[in-house]
Design a protein that fits this description.
By secondary structure, the protein is an alpha/beta fold. It folds into two domains: 223 residues, Glycogen Phosphorylase B (Rossmann fold); 146 residues, 3-Layer(aba) Sandwich (Rossmann fold). 44% of the residues lie in helices and 14% in strands. It is built from 17 helices and 13 strands. The strands form two sheets. It has a seven-stranded parallel β-sheet, sandwiched between helices. Strand 6, helix 6 and strand 7 form a beta-alpha-beta unit. Helix 3 packs across helix 17, helix 7 packs across helix 13 and helix 16 packs across helix 17. It is elongated. It starts with a strand and ends in a 5-residue tail after the last helix.
């Protein structure tokens, strides 16, 4: 059994891909899995370190902040799709899993051309790449039951968000003595500044403050090192840090939220304002379930952080930790593998009826664009991007 996992360009997408890859390897020891991501991004460090083969494609998505940068997309997309075709043709997967972002698009389009079924792991139902690839998906694995009706495919299943191994529930100490602060793999400047502004007070409140600063906060974090304060620019052992923490201040990426739920930790969430506001939605869900407190990014200061933490009474902290129990989906990666297995089985049952599918070569790029169905797919892709992001026909 051969699985190709496509997507990446951000830590959240890559960790989800690695979680499913590990679950697939455990379920199919004789199977093969390869991950395909974006050239020059975080997957180039994370995937090989996790022991999985990686291939990368030069591709980028629609830039919502600087529209002029999108003028080059018509030149990039055909080459990216040609590369995706070569990857799919050589690996010959039984199924392709897209884990989100524009990095997954070339291989998913190639899978469609080759007649290989693909499944979407959907952390952001409103994401442009997910919406573009939805119609051809054999199935979609969404993170919340409420997303089933929002993101309809032939088969949409609420599996939860896949997380890495090592996250285990524990009962945090109340009042909390160990604080973990993380802004994600790249760090979060506003969270960093708030922590540094409030650091003297935090060290009177907590026995230990562990601060994942990201690369952009590395130098200042190290300069402020003192007893009780540990600044780390990057770590692969988030599970280990959460296992030793009682309270977390973090961004609200879906991966981070899923890890907090699995670990059973109360949190102060500061959602980022990028990516169409999906972190705001994640934080709102957590707050509505009483599992976290949400602070808008624009309002976060050292004084606001201090007041929020002071307001977290022992009873409220215990209630927040208890609320995580009903939300956690620690078996999400294994559930996604189960969906993949069922899609493969169905594909094999129907294989005899698929003998007339188009087979496309990718060696001659000009012929590839002009004379094959791939050219039509690239044109259609451009039309969808225009409708979604310029004309506004699709909510984004």
């Amino acid at each position: 059994m051969r699985l190709l996992i496509s997507g990446g360009a951000s830590g959240g997408h890559v960790t989800a891909a690695l979680a499913v890859a590990a679950a697939f390897r455990a379920a199919h020891p004789d199977g093969e899995v390869v991950l395909v991501g974006r050239t020059g991004r975080v997957e180039e460090a994370l995937v090989p370190a996790a022991g999985f083969p990686l291939q990368t494609i030069h591709v980028r998505g629609w830039d919502r902040e600087a529209g002029w940068k999108n003028l080059g997309l018509p030149a990039i997309l055909p080459w990216a799709l040609a590369h995706g075709l070569r990857v799919v043709s050589r690996f010959q997967p039984d199924v392709v899993l897209g884990v989100g972002a524009h990095a997954m698009v070339p291989c998913l389009l190639a899978a469609r051309l080759r007649g290989v079924p693909y499944v979407l792991q959907v952390s952001e139902p409103s994401g442009l790449a997910n919406r573009m690839m939805r119609s051809g998906a054999a199935a979609a694995c969404v993170s919340f039951p409420s997303d089933v009706d929002v993101f309809r495919t032939r088969r949409t299943v609420a599996t939860g968000y896949p997380i890495r191994d090592g996250f285990h529930r524990r009962e945090p100490t109340v009042p909390p003595r160990r604080l973990l602060v993380t802004g994600g793999g790249l760090g979060a400047r506003r969270i960093n500044e708030a922590v540094w502004d409030a650091l003297d007070w935090l060290l009177t409140r907590f026995d230990q403050v562990v601060h994942l600063t990201g690369a952009q906060g590395k130098q200042r974090g190290e300069a402020l090192a003192r007893p009780g304060y540990l600044a780390i620019s990057r770590t692969a052992d988030v599970a280990g840090l959460m296992a030793e923490s009682d309270l977390v201040v973090a961004r609200a990426g879906l991966g981070t939220c899923a890890e907090l739920l699995a670990a059973g930790l109360p949190a102060v969430l500061v959602p980022g304002r990028f990516g169409g506001g999906h972190q705001e939605d994640n934080a709102a869900r957590m707050e509505a379930a009483c599992a976290a407190v949400r602070v808008p990014d624009a309002e976060l200061t050292g004084d606001r952080l201090r007041r929020v933490i002071e307001d977290l009474t022992s009873d409220r902290l215990r209630a927040m930790a208890e609320a995580t129990t009903g939300l956690a989906r620690p078996d999400a990666a294994r559930e996604i593998v189960r969906v993949l297995d069922e899609v493969i089985a169905e594909s094999r049952r129907r294989q005899a009826d698929r003998s007339g599918l188009l087979v496309v070569g990718a060696d001659d790029i000009s012929e590839f664009v002009r004379e094959t169905e791939a050219g039509e797919l690239v044109a259609d892709l451009g039309q969808q991007v225009w409708a979604a992001e310029v004309v506004g026909q699709v909510k984004g």
